[in-house]
């Protein structure tokens, strides 16, 4: 019963949010099947019925038609006089009252730009971006093989082009087909020996000595290095606003609940 009540509340909340929807896609005994009806069937407000494939549209529409027919049949049967229906309806009314009241309470919460900026200035440690590296590697089984690859790089005119070629020919593992490319990663997210070897390089440099890890011997080429930084206020202001709104709302509801508890006569058995 609780699942049914919760589902109906969600349906009513969804419908009240889009009461003005004018689109309709069919009629059943003269009654329109609207976009709201379809959203209820889809159970996800983020899904746009209009962009679904035709077979899926047909399926959803048929479900909405069946739902309307079955609903009409239920009402004709006199279900509204049933005690369980009346009990559930009272429960729905109370839960929906709480839901709508809380929505209205949230709408009244305001956050000023000064509050947002103050939070940013006091919490800059929360908005740090770690240093990142972009690298390639040639992974080999033996130190001798790694040294051999380094010798070839030392003699090459175009170091990067040669590195990519050698990675494709010599490297062990899945990155060989991508010229040893590892992408961008936080500088301390690799195994310690690899991270240390990569951090020691400048962009455009390769390791002159093999870097040994638990996976084997690496020759590393550093594509780029981005130092640690702090995101600007403009980058995070929307997230800060949302956080402060939610935080104020939680505190407001908590304060209201505490006040009501003090005023109420509560008996716990």
From TrEMBL:
The keyword Signal applies. Keywords: Coiled coil, Isomerase, Rotamase, Signal. It comes from the Bacteria. GO terms for molecular function: peptidyl-prolyl cis-trans isomerase activity. Residues 130-224 form the PpiC domain. Residues 1-21 form the signal peptide. InterPro entries: PPIase_dom_sf (IPR046357), PPIase_PpiC (IPR000297), PPIase_PpiC_CS (IPR023058), PrsA_foldase (IPR050245), Trigger_fact/SurA_dom_sf (IPR027304). Pfam families: Rotamase_2 (PF13145). Residues 139-166 form a coiled coil. This is Major antigenic peptide / PpiC-type peptidyl-prolyl cis-trans isomerase. It comes from Malaciobacter marinus. The gene is peb4.
